[in-house]
Write a structure and sequence with these properties.
By secondary structure, the protein is α/β, with parallel strands linked by helices. It has four helices and five strands, in the order ββαβαβαβα. The longest helix is centred in the first third of the chain and has 14 residues. It is globular, with a radius of gyration of 14 Å.
C-alpha cells in the first residue's frame, strides 16, 4: 500500500497529496491518486494534476461532472491527447522561470 501524506500550503483550501511509492508499483500510486482526486472533489474548486498520463482521463471526467476545473501541468510531448481534450494544459517549460528555485 502506498504511503501518503498531505503537505500544508499557504492557501488553506489547497492540499498537496504526496504519494511515496516504489517505481515498481507506479500503477498502484496512480490509482491511489485518481481515487483520492475523485473522493475529495467536494473539498476543492480546481484540481491541478502534474501528469500527462492518459490513465487519468476517467477521473478527470468524474471531477468535471461535479463542475470542478481541471488543470494539467506537464510538458509538450509528454501529455496524452486524452488529457489535452479534457483539461486546461499548462506547459511546465513555459513557466520554468517562475517555478524554479534560484
Amino acid at each position: 500500500m502506498a504511503k501518503k501524506h498531505q503537505t500544508a500550503t499557504p492557501n488553506p483550501k489547497m492540499r498537496i497529496l504526496v504519494i511515496d511509492d516504489s517505481p515498481w508499483n507506479i500503477e498502484s500510486a496512480k490509482m491511489t491518486l485518481a481515487f483520492e482526486m475523485v473522493d475529495t472533489r467536494e473539498k476543492y474548486d480546481t484540481a491541478i494534476l502534474m501528469s500527462g498520463d492518459s490513465d487519468f482521463d476517467v477521473p478527470i471526467d468524474k471531477i468535471k461532472e461535479s463542475g470542478k476545473r481541471i488543470i494539467v501541468m506537464s510538458t509538450r510531448g509528454h501529455i496524452s491527447k486524452e488529457l489535452l481534450e479534457r483539461a486546461k494544459f499548462i506547459d511546465l517549460r513555459k513557466i520554468k522561470a517562475e517555478i524554479s528555485q534560484k
